[in-house]
Amino acid sequence: MPIQKSNYNNTAWYLFNAHMETIIPSLFYKVKGIEYERERLELEDGDFLDLDWIRNGNKRLLILSHGLEGSSERHYIQRPAKYFSKKGWDILAWNNRSCSGEMNRLPRFYHHGATEDISSVIDKGLSNEYDEVVLIGYSMGGGMQQKYLGEREIDNRIKGAISFSVPCNVKDSAEQLRLSGNQMYERRFIKKLKEKIVEKSRLMELDIDGIDAVKTFPEFDERFTLRLFPGYKDTDDFYNKITSDQFLDKITVPILIVNAKNDPMLGEKCYPVELAKNSNLIHLEMPEKGGHVGFTTKIKDISYMEYAAEKFIEEVIFAS
After folding, report:
1. pLDDT per residue over 137-168, tens digit each?
2. Do 147 and 113 meet the contact criterion of CB atoms below 8 Å apart?
3. H-run or E-run covering 64
4. One-character DSSP codes across 204-246
5. Cα–Cα distance between 95 and 73 in angstroms, integer?
6. What residue ranges define each of the domains in the chain, with the CATH number in brackets?
7. pTM more than 0.85
């Protein structure tokens, strides 16, 4: 499939570089009129996930997956929830462990390649007898759903997927965050993750000795993630096994990947150009601008991501 031409044009004068395109929407854009119905999904390991629904009695379901340290309350989740709930879809926006506003019960959290939770969410969605299901993931959530789709045989009611600002290669993304000018994003993520580790240590026995010295993702993953998710030899082994790009060629439904060329969190390996060129299912769109989960339009309640998703659903997923 040829690389898909992008129709996105940055229209706001104040979003004059990739950082502004990324930061301004994240900090200031709010979505009004969202009313979720929360359901707690109890997991087999004794933990839970909080699911936020918009149910209108439709037979089509969109499952929305948020990014690292995001939630169903983030603007990039609420916008498609609001938009598509008016277009004949039911919505299931799920929260990773510890991301719903209540700390999870077990020591473990989540990571890019931990697909057992998204699998449980999708199974829950399918149990409601929907005829058609489409997955939309943002950043880490997009990587999760890509790995999920490529590593297993999926239900035939899952018709396709769409991913925005996806670190298709986790190690390459981590290295991009070490570059001058991009480190502010890593610092912000690490700060929030460390706060959760400290909070969790107050609820259960958890060794947090040396946490103040942790400054980067490799350090955090070496110190905490590998201990909470045993089975990986080291951080390189961890990144190699969880990254979603190795599963893309195994996906059996149409998938759209929209990664802006100026995304400050994505390195070169996060753009699977050659794979998309030789695939009938992988559609890659690389707008010149957009930042990370930005893609702002003049109408703040709607981003280019909703337009791109709707176009792909109508013209590719349900035309195939």
Report:
1. 999 999 999 999 999 999 999 999 999 999 99
2. yes
3. strand 60-65
4. S----TTGGG--SHHHHIIIIIHHHS---SSHHHHHHHH-SGG
5. 9
6. 18-169+244-319 (3.40.50.1820)
7. yes
